[in-house]
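Input record (one chain):
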Amino acid sequence: MDYGKKIQELRKRLGLSQSAFAAKLGIHKQMVSDVERGKQKRFNPQIEQKIVEIFGIDPAFFITSQNSRLSESQSLESTKTYSAEEEILLRYFAQIPEAKRLDALVCLLECIRKYK
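The corresponding structure, as predicted from the sequence alone:
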């Protein structure tokens, strides 16, 4: 199921109109409509995090086949299966501009040292 359809299904299961769903997230109704219709590919990570927090949705809900695409040249031996948490981290990391990724890694390593 594509991302927009998943969002629409979630919204309907919650019993919310597009307007009510958008209001709870602090976004415009048009953004919800655009995502559901596929005009906008997906919500940004901050909005996805709000959905997780406000509605108690498992973050793995947002992982789609788009996030685990493989080039045809990769062999099955080189494929790695990631946990839901790792998939989320990889997706967020990919959204960081390349010039800022090293800074993000330094920050992440500092957090890892803190919580070891």
